[in-house]
Structure formats: structure tokens, C-alpha cells
Amino acid sequence: MKKIFFFLFIFIIHTTFSNGFFVTISGTSFCNTTHSKSLFFVLDYESRNDIFLDSVFIDKSNRSFSKVLYLPEPCIVNFVIKDCQTIPLAFENSENVQISISATDYTVSGSNASLLIKKYDDFRKLSYKRIMKPLYDSITLYEELGMIDKMMSLSKMMMQTYILHKSDLSDFVDKNMTNSIAVYYSSLRWNADKDLLMIEKISKNMKLRYGNIKISQHIENRFLRFDKIKIGNKATEIVCRDSTGKILKLSDFKGKYVLIDFWASWCRPCRQESVNVVKLYGDFKSRNFEIFAVSLDDKKDKWLQAINKDKYSWIQTSDLVSWKSKAALDYNISYIPSNVLLDENQIIIARNINTEEIARILNNRK
């Protein structure tokens, strides 16, 4: 009884002096893992640093768990079960959420926003399977068979195919999520050009409904960055070290057409597409064209090995902090390979186009 009164007292204190609220998360986990302790993190896409919130032990005898969390404001919480799954949960107010988790899927009830994230994720997986997977499987097959010409031909379709996949997701978001806190979960896959008006609408909706909470600020910041790097605007400066440790600036190459190329040694599609990029650079490097590559690696040896193995002879830079790269954040890079094409005045003229389209633009220069 004392525990009940203590809980009620804490609840009254928090609800009286803040906009926070309590949520209860309970359920069962059928994951095959030796780790009984699972963790809760507040999702933060702006810093790419999820913020530790609390932990819970999963009872090994009946596989159950239950946790009461205090949240200072509406947010999205990642429930991380090591060696199994990460479950995203969205909370707008006090709720009692039940989850049943397996090694490959989960069900959720008691939270409309969390259920909306689940529906979005299910749709995303189906869209990927329908649009992306056949292409990736074919490219990988041709690579394994040593049929490089066919691999190169299909690799040129990767970026545009992924844009189709992202457009599929954007349509789902626009129809179903723009008024829910759950929309923040989808933000990493927003399109910098196609989704600009949608993001502006979402930003206004978040401010009206939730005020100046962190997610509202993050979505507004994302809109402002997207607006800054839209086609027709001047490129945001990039300052980074090259593979020898020398500091380079993107603006050092004003006067040339520049392709900003985001990639990583661990990204198989990047490495598959690189055959086409090598040919493009060979054809145009003497014609006032440069490639300014930004790697999202975090291990220098792997990065340098990939540069040497794939024979990249253009400018290579990296902060060696993976997705936390400042350039990746400034340009809202959420998938790789990604690219941005600049004219000689460093005006953004295209984004995420294949090497054939880049060659066409370069050949048609005045």
C-alpha cells in the first residue's frame, strides 16, 4: 500500500509541475537471447545519439516484462532487446502499452501512435521487397557471376529505384501520419526535394499540436536544412580531412562542376555502383569536373583499403564518425550511395542521379 501511495505522490508532483506523463510498457518476449536486461532510449535523429532512458529485466521463467517510464514530453522510445529486436514506440500521453515480441516480428496495442509506426514499418518492408530487392538481388548475382557489364548497367538504376521506394513511403506518410508524433520515426527517409512541402506541413502541425517540444524543433530544423539544400540553392560548405589528414573545403573547388559523393566501404551498393563512377571520372576529370567524396566510415583502415581496391583516384574525405558526419547531417543523408551535383558556381543542380545522367549534364554544359 505504501508503494501505491508513493507512486501516486510522484505522479501528482510530475503532472503538477511539468507537462510530463507516465507510460506502462509490458508484454512478453520470445527472443532467443542470453541477455535478460533490455534498454529504453529516447530516439534523437538530429544528433544521431539515442538518449538512454531506463532498463527492464525480462523474466526468464515466463518471458514477461513490465516497466513504468516517466516521459517529460511526447517522444519516440526505442525498446532494445539485444541480439533480437529494436521496437520503436511513440507516446503522446499516458498509456498502457502491451507488446508481444518474437525474433522477427512484434505486435503492439494500447498506443495508437505506436501502432501507426508498426503499420509504417510493415508497409516499408513490403515496399522494399517489391521495388528494391529484385534489383539488388540481380546486381549481386551478376557480380558473383563476374558479369560486370550487366552489373554496371543495373547499378545505374539503384538511385532512381531507391527514390521510387522513398516516394512510396512519403505517400504513406502524407496520407496517414502527418498529424501524429509517430511521423518523426519516418523522417530519416524523407526526400529533400519531393517532400519539402510535406515537411513544412508536418512542422506546422507539430508546433500547433505539441508546442515547442524537441521533436517539433527537430522537424523544423530538418525542414530548414532541406530548404537550404534544395535544387537551385548554393551548396552548404563541407570542411573535412582527406585520406592523408589534410583539411579540404568544398568551396576550394569552385569553378568546376563537382559531384559530392556520399558512400562507405561497408556499403555494398556503393561498391557495386563505384565501377560506373570510376568510368565517369576517367571520362571527365580533364574537363573541369571533380568528385568530392564523403565517406561514412568509422574505421580508417577499412576506408583506405576500399579506396585502393576500387581504384578511386578522386578526392576522398571522412570524419570517420559514420552517420554522425557533419556533412551527412547538413545534407540530410539517410541512405548511401547518395550524391549532389554542383555547377561551377557551387549551385545545386541535381541530386541522386546516375552516372549516365551526370555525363549527359556535363556534355551539355555551355
At a glance:
The chain is α+β, with helices and mostly antiparallel strands and 366 residues long. Helices cover 40% and strands 24% of the residues.
Q: How would you describe this structure in keywords?
A:
4-stranded mixed sheet; alpha+beta; 40% helix; 5-stranded mixed sheet; single chain; 366 residues
Number of domains: 3
The CATH superfamily label of the largest domain reads: Glutaredoxin
* End-to-end C-alpha gap: 82 Å
CATH topology (level 3) name of the largest domain = Glutaredoxin
Q: Quick one: how many beta strands?
A: 15
Helix content: 40-55%
User: How do the helices and strands follow one another from N- to C-terminus?
Assistant: HEEEEEEEEHHHHHEEEHEHEHEEH
State the major sheet: 5 strands, mixed
**What percentage of the residues does DSSP assign to strands (E)?**
15-25%
Structural class: alpha+beta
Instruction: Count up the helices.
Output: 10
How are the strands ordered across the major sheet?
13-12-11-14-15
Point out poorly predicted stretches: 1-17
Tell me what the CATH architecture of the largest domain is: 3-Layer(aba) Sandwich
Radius of gyration: 23 Å
Principal-axis shape equals: globular
Mean pLDDT, nearest integer?
91
CATH C-level category of the largest domain: Alpha Beta
What features would you describe in this structure?
The chain is an alpha+beta fold. It is globular. The protein starts with a helix and ends with a helix. Helix 2 runs antiparallel to helix 4 (158-176). Strand 2 (37-42) and strand 3 form a beta hairpin. It contains 10 helices and 15 strands. It has 3 domains: 2-110, Immunoglobulin-like; 115-228, no CATH class; 239-363, 3-Layer(aba) Sandwich (Glutaredoxin).
